[in-house]
Amino acid sequence: xxxxxxxxxxxxxxxxxxxxxxxxxxxxxxxxxxxxxxxxxxxxxxxxxxxxxxxxxxxxxxxxxxxxxxxxxxxxxxxxxxxxxxxxxxxxxxxxxxxxxxxxxxxxxxxxxxxxxxxxxxxxxxxxxxxxxxxxxxxxxxxxxxxxxxxxxxxxxxxxxxxxxxxxxxxxxxxxxxxxxxxxxxxxxxxxxxxxxxxxxxxxxxxxxxxxxxxxxxxxxxxxxxxxxxxxxxxxxxxxxxxxxxxxxxxxxxxxxxxxxxxxx
Length: 265
Ligand code: KIV
Ligand code: NA
What we know:
The protein is built from eleven helices and eight strands. The protein has helices spanning 6-14, 27-35, 47-50, 62-73, 94-108, 122-130, 146-149, 159-175, 187-196, 217-220, 238-254, and strands at 19-23, 40-43, 80-84, 112-114, 135-140, 179-183, 201-204, 212-215. It has a single domain (6-220), classed as TIM Barrel (Alpha-Beta Barrel), CATH 3.20.20. It is of the alpha/beta class and 265 residues long. The longest helix has 17 residues, at 159-175. Helix 5 (94-108) links the parallel strand 3 and strand 4 (112-114). The protein has an eight-stranded parallel beta barrel with strand order 1-2-3-4-5-6-7-8, surrounded by seven helices. Helices cover 42% and strands 14% of the residues. The structure holds 3-methyl-2-oxobutanoic acid and sodium ion.
């Protein structure tokens, strides 16, 4: 695919081609992710943790999300860019939700937005969709509601919560969302959801019965090392490689090894 669109993703699901998605929050990283051929780049509100060092995703602001998104957009040639609506920018009422989504689209040039939640934010999602802005849903573990749940453990293990999640997923498809992220739920349930809707289901900690996978870039590159959920596969140990490179540089400076004769004017 030359340029990934929301239509491409729905076609990929229909053709049984899995969707790859990663987060990015800045120009340099987004350029690498895009050139490596990732289908979807998520400017996640995980930037609150990864980029700003907050304990939760709640503090990041709409202005900060727009800054991250516009940096990512400048790097992209192919991937579809999805931007999280941050906590507090869409929960009050549908008008506020639409206003926030419009700001993201206008000020960053992003292609779509993502909101956490099901039927409680249905009217807000409809309002955004009515303005022609593609919406990705997010169900299961929804980190913006962390203080309601108290923990980041697996969601929808109970029958009732599982039923509600399936209903929410069907509702999101019905009103016109182009895809849904399912975070940290049993693999069996995620597979059932993926089989009961025709829009792509992108999983994180939701097993391999879904239509695509997403991870936080800095986690899968091994830059972070305190966060160790079972679903996280580390493809590199960048924490170690970077630490070694940086200490080597510090040593070289102290030992007058850097710069050498050919590294000066
Ligand atoms: O903010 C984020 O990184 C996310 C993904 C984990 C789905 O929402
Ligand atoms: Na998020």
